[in-house]
Amino acid sequence: MCAHKRADCGHIIFDPDEVMRRQGTNDAELCEYARIRPEQLRHYRQDKIKKLSHDFVARLCYVLECQPGEIFRYIPAGEGSAAGEDSAAEEDSAAGEQAF
Fold it and tell me: Over the chain, what HEC string results?
């Protein structure tokens, strides 16, 4: 069972890249069709937003024709290095900024 502290439970990472490649969708198209702002997408990619609305997830899944588990990953507590996650977030951020 999960301890009381959020950090002890692990966390969820937004990782739509594989699905986006499969669908041939770029960040600009995803933002346009899902009706989200580019800044909002960048913040999700950088793990700066901690709460998801069902509406947001539904719009992403509709546009990308996928299930939520295909664009979100659960990282158990203690797995993955903080440095590796930071560099992946920086790469995602750079990729997102290049599209705009």
Answer: CCCCCHHHHCEEEECCHHHHHHHCCCHHHHHHHHCCCHHHHHHHHCCCCCCCCHHHHHHHHHHHCCCHHHCEEEECCCCCCHHHHHHHHHHHHHHHHHCC
